[in-house]
Structure formats: C-alpha cells, structure tokens
C-alpha cells in the first residue's frame, strides 16, 4: 500500500512551504503562548462553522475521492464525529484548562502541588485517506482546545477532500493558527522531519515506524495511531445471530476500510457453519442491493481493490472455502467488493498476516476460549478487540489475558465513537491516545508545579550537615 521501499533512516529533503508555515506558527505561538478560554472557544467555533457550512461540499468531495462513498457514512463518520469532537472540547474546556491539585506528602506540607496544563506550541498532524476529514480535524480540535497552532498534512489518495479542507480552513483561520499543506510521500517525509512540539500520525504501522524515526531526530514527541488485525471473538455463550449482525456492520462500514474494523472472527468449532451463514445473512440484510444502492462504499483505488482480490485468490488457491455474498460482475468496474468470507484459512497466507482493510472476512474455528486467547497472543497487539457473549467470567478472562488498544463488548466499533474514552493502540497498533480529555492532555504539557511554603521545613536539611541532620533523615525514613 504505502511506499516502504526507501531506506528507513534516510534524511528527507526539507519543504520550503512547510518550513515557512511552521516558522510563522512558531512565532505566532511565542507571541501568544497561553490563549484564553474565549480564544480557544472562538477557534473551536470556527472549526465547527467550517465543517457545518460546507457539509454538502465535503460529502461530494469524499464521494468523488472514493468514487462512491455512502452519504450517511460521511455524515456520521466525518461530519458528525469531527463536529462532536470540537463541541465536546468546548463543553469541557474550562475544566480541562484548570490546574489539577494533587496531594502533597505530609513531610513537605504546608507546600502545595499542582499539575498545570500548558499549550505545547505547534502540532503536526499527518492523516490517512480512509476517514480523510475526521482523522485530520478531530485531532485538530483537541490541539486547538489545548491552545496550540496546527499544521495538517492529509493523504494524497483523497485529493478532493484535502483540497476542500485546505480551502475551508483558510477561509476560517489565519495561517498562523491552523493550515493545511498537501502532497504525497515526499511531503509526508519532509513534514515528519519538522521539529514540531508534537506530531500525531494516523496511518499504517510501516509508515508509522518511519515517522517515529524521523521525529526521533528532533526528539519530537509522537502519537502514533496505527492499524493491525483486530479480532472478533464469538464466545460459546453468544447469540450467533446478534453477534454476526454487529460484526457484519462493523466490517462493512466504509467497505471494511476502517482501522478498527473486525479483521477476522474466532468462533467455536461446532458453530462454524452457523456463524458463516449468519454473517452472510446479515450482509444481505444490511446491503440488499450493493450495485445500485449508494449505501455501500467503493474501495479507494484500483491498486487497493487488486490487493484485496489477490488476498482472496491466494486463499482460494490454497483450498480455503470462499463465500462471496452477493457477488456480481457489475461490481468490479465500480470497485465494490461484497462481503467475502474465507472459512478457516491456513495461518501462513497474506490474508492471515496483513491487516486486511477491506470487506474480506476470515472466519476461524477454535476449540474454545483458550485457543482464541492463544491465537490473539501469538500475533501483534491489535488496535481493537470485540467480544460477544453473556458469560461475564469468560469475558473477563479474555480481556485480562489479551491486549488490544480498545474493546467493545457485544458490538463493534462503538468504543471509538465516544469522546469520554481515550482512543489509541498498544504495541504495534500505536503509541499514545487522544479523544476527549486524553486528547487535550496529549497536546498539552501537563506541567507539575510545586509551590513551596514560607514555613518549609526542608531548610533543616541544608548543609553543613550535622548529627541533627542524621536524626532528621532517620525520622524522615520512618514517615516516607
Ligand atoms: P499510510 O501510512 O500509507 O499513509 C498515512 C499518511 O502518511 C498519508 O498522509 C501519507 O501521505 C503519509 N506518508 C506516506 N509515506 C510517508 C512517509 N514516508 N513519511 C511520512 N508520511 C508519509 O496509511 P493509509 O493507507 O493512508 O491508511 C491506512 C492505514 O491507516 C491502515 O493501516 C489503518 O489501520 C491505519 N489507520 C489507523 C487509524 C487509527 O486511528 N489508529 C485510523 C485510520 C487508519
């Protein structure tokens, strides 16, 4: 997918335009290092205004980038999610900006200790193509709420959306507050070598690693929102029909081009046939007319379409059973790939090694909970995990013995859609998190400040040291 052929540690060329805007923002931040609540609210309002007044143009741009993107998906996952991130930040801004008092140890009293959030400066955001507006603007809302300046580099695979983002941001914001620079891999490389005060990257694990290395040269702190193979586990105690409907919905939203889409299913061996039938039935219920209805989104490019087809072909060639739900010749020219279930594929094919990122769904049968846990723990730590069932002891055991960036129980995707839960990966699925207060904190320096009291007793520990110091230290060791 991404170009990973260049040497990983090569020093990229700088980009004069990126450097110019970065320096402009840096100077502007230095002149106004602590924007007031009112200024931050005004910036969040401008962001909301930019999106809401250009809703139709955004929907059209995303649709043209995908060649066909469901209007409802764009409304929900781009417009509503971005606006709700900005609104939630506005609602909680005063509380988030407040200093947090923390307890001071008894031997240091009557001093006081506080954590005082401080804007970091200029934040860089590199975003992917799959949710091209949301994954640029929802971190931008958090960065603006935290009092920063923002520079965004969207994906080159969604040029119409990138252009409209640039236009609507330019119309609402001074370049010194927030701006968009566009371009492909070279621009991305130059962007990640800029000494931002924080860099948030959303994209593939392979490119995330490159961005991390480029940022390390400046010791720029990063949030890396990456991908992975997110499992959906159907427990013995689950209602197969309900689980299958949720899994199909989560898999087929944006045609599987979602970082937290269930990548594959683990189901009890005795229920394999029932699971496959229920998944196929659910897909038909959700998308009865794939070719004529605008509900089902196309695959982003011919290259991505061919990659998905090749994953299925390899599985077919090694003898795996394939169930194509509603496949028809009319779909290929539209780059629409219906749900394609691959039953019990072998572990060594690309389908079971790469993140699928499309509507191809391996369904693996397991002997029980233990095998499901082992399977997950044998792979890299995923971005999401979905568990279906009613047996809470079984659920707790799976949650305690596996790692995942985030979890939804008895559904898919929804843990990502609410601002009160942090969103991020673990292990190879990411570093750091954002959304809600966690996003505000990610783009702030949570500065510890110790306010000494004029009645401080620590002066008794100043040199020259004496026997009295020894006695005091002995006492101190008893109370710490
Ligand atoms: P990608 O890694 O190919 O590209 C992401 C961005 O990085 C684009 O803007 C691209 O231009 C830029 N880029 C490319 N090469 C670069 C380089 N060498 N240096 C700096 N920047 C570079 O990802 P993609 O194909 O756009 O998106 C799909 C991937 O993103 C999937 O793996 C998916 O799981 C992941 N993703 C993760 C999340 C999340 O929140 N964790 C969300 C959406 C997508």
Side by side, the strands of the main sheet go 10-11-12-9-8-13-14
List cofactors, ions and other ligands.
nicotinamide-adenine-dinucleotide
Which structural class should the secondary elements be placed in? alpha/beta
- Percent helix range: 40-55%
Number of helices: 15
Q: What's the CATH superfamily of the largest domain, by name? A: Aldehyde Dehydrogenase, Chain A, domain 1
CATH architecture of the largest domain: 3-Layer(aba) Sandwich
> End-to-end span in angstroms?
55 Å
> For the CA atoms, what is the radius of gyration?
25 Å
Could you characterize what this model shows?
This protein has 480 residues and is an alpha/beta fold. It folds into 2 domains: 15-227 and 430-446, Aldehyde Dehydrogenase, Chain A, domain 1, CATH 3.40.605; 231-424, Aldehyde Dehydrogenase, Chain A, domain 2 (3-Layer(aba) Sandwich). It is 42% helix and 16% strand. It has helices at 16-31, 37-52, 55-66, 71-97, 134-145, 159-172, 185-192, 205-216, 240-252, 272-286, 302-317, 369-378, 392-401, 436-442, 467-479, and strands spanning 100-102, 112-119, 122-126, 149-153, 178-180, 198-202, 222-225, 231-234, 264-268, 321-324, 340-343, 360-366, 384-388, 406-409, 430-431, 444-451. The chain has a 7-stranded mixed beta sheet with strand order 10-11-12-9-8-13-14, sandwiched between helices. Strands 5-4-3-6-7-15 form a 6-stranded mixed beta sheet, with helices on both faces. A 3-stranded antiparallel beta sheet has the order 1-2-16. α13 links the parallel β13 (384-388) and β14 (406-409). The longest helix is centred in the N-terminal third of the chain and has 27 residues, at 71-97. The radius of gyration is 25 Å and the shape is globular. The N and C termini lie far apart (55 Å). It binds nicotinamide-adenine-dinucleotide (NAD). Nicotinamide-adenine-dinucleotide binds next to α7 and α8. Nicotinamide-adenine-dinucleotide is lined by residues 1-2, 126-130, 135, 153, 155-156, 184-185, 188-189, 192, 202-204, 207, 210-211, 225-227, 259, 355, 357, 383, 425, 430.
